[in-house]
Amino acid sequence: MKAVLDFCLIFLTLHTPGVLSLSTHVAIIYPQDPVLLMGSNLTASCWVHPDLGVHASSLFWTLNGQQLPTSLYRVLSPTNLSVTLAGLNASRQTSGDNLVCHNHKGHILAGSCLYVGMPPEKPVNLTCWSRNTKDLTCSWAPGGRGETNISTQYTLKYKLRWYGKEKECEDYTHTQPYSCSITRDLHLFTPYEIWVEASNQLGRATSDVITLDILDVVTTDPPSGVTVSRVGQLEDQLSVRWEAPPALKDFLFQAKYQIRYRLEDSQDWKVMDDVGNQTSCRLAGLRPGTVYFVQVRCNPVGIYGSRKAGIWSEWSHPTAASTPHSERLMSGSCDSKSSGDSNSTLRRELKQFFGWVRKHAYGCSSMSMKLYDQWRVLMQKSHKARNQVLQGDKS
């Protein structure tokens, strides 16, 4: 708060033209820099030194640069002018609102900063996670109406549940205003009690206490070495491979993975949840001749026997690949309706069989994948040969 008061004083003395030095004590405002509840009333007085030769009736007040109506003034003596403000609104900024006393020429005689707000409410949504078991980061949100309009300090506190000494987190991040990371003296296999305290000059509040074991809230770095490649000439498939997060290679856990992919010209991701703990996957049912972006993320499940699922990592950097162009699309051919009933029946039966295989071989399941690959190659060769015959008949 001292730094804020210093800022307010510097603002009044340096950034306004015609300022008289406060060190000469030509004028004083009382109360000086008060902290008030929203909706409060305030009567402030501006006292000028008799040697200045200025009568109080010639003075005027401004609040944040706006002159206040004379109806709010009261001349208490030849050297004392008061102003009464009713139902104060919250301060526009945490550095306070500037209440200033001027002489008749507009020169500043004295100033005061008003801090109008609310006591903090109980912080909420306290959540913690550990990246690769090397730290413990917690985030939270201000309670109720949010910020209190005056400077509020948040302190993350923690201790080992049964025998620990209460400690305060020290590494507060600037990118996330309500978060802090504990980076040393962490204990595994022992639950922690964690809470947040909020305080300002009008009061204090404490969040609910959460209890957790670091092994239950582990998240990893995203999977590395993600590659996406074609599956031969199969125009509707791509193969995805990746490496497990290296930071947890010495830990006992079984990771599970998710994959998401989207078209190059789309922002809609399709997520595959059935990847399991393998580090490769086949995407099927894709559009031929199309660029896809693919990402992978990891969840460390059951580290050292923990019964709780871990926390999903961030997604890996997008990796792009394209499916091969379809021979059917390139030839511009279509099914002939003069092939006869026998060919129509055969096509219908093949379509049903293809649908069954595709259903059971879709995604990352290894079931019937070899049969599916063989079938797709056979179908593509059959279409290609048939298209060549049709092209020959037309010529």
From TrEMBL:
One of its GO terms (molecular function) is cytokine receptor activity. Residues 1-21 form the signal peptide. CDD domains: FN3 (cd00063). It is a single-pass type I membrane protein. One of its GO terms (cellular component) is CRLF-CLCF1 complex. Residues 122-217, 222-323 form the Fibronectin type-III domain. Belongs to the type I cytokine receptor family. Type 3 subfamily. Residues 331-343 have a biased composition (Low complexity). The keyword Lipid biosynthesis does not apply. Keywords: Disulfide bond, Glycoprotein, Immunoglobulin domain, Membrane, Phosphoprotein, Receptor, Repeat, Secreted, Signal, Transmembrane, Transmembrane helix. InterPro entries: FN3_dom (IPR003961), FN3_sf (IPR036116), Growth/epo_recpt_lig-bind (IPR015152), Ig-like_dom_sf (IPR036179), Ig-like_fold (IPR013783), IgC2-like_lig-bd (IPR010457). It comes from Seriola dumerili. It is found in: Membrane; Secreted. Its main location: membrane. Residues 322-343 are annotated as: Disordered. The lineage of its organism: Eukaryota, Metazoa, Chordata, Craniata, Vertebrata. GO terms for biological process: negative regulation of neuron apoptotic process. The keyword Protein transport does not apply. This is Cytokine receptor-like factor 1. PROSITE patterns: FN3.
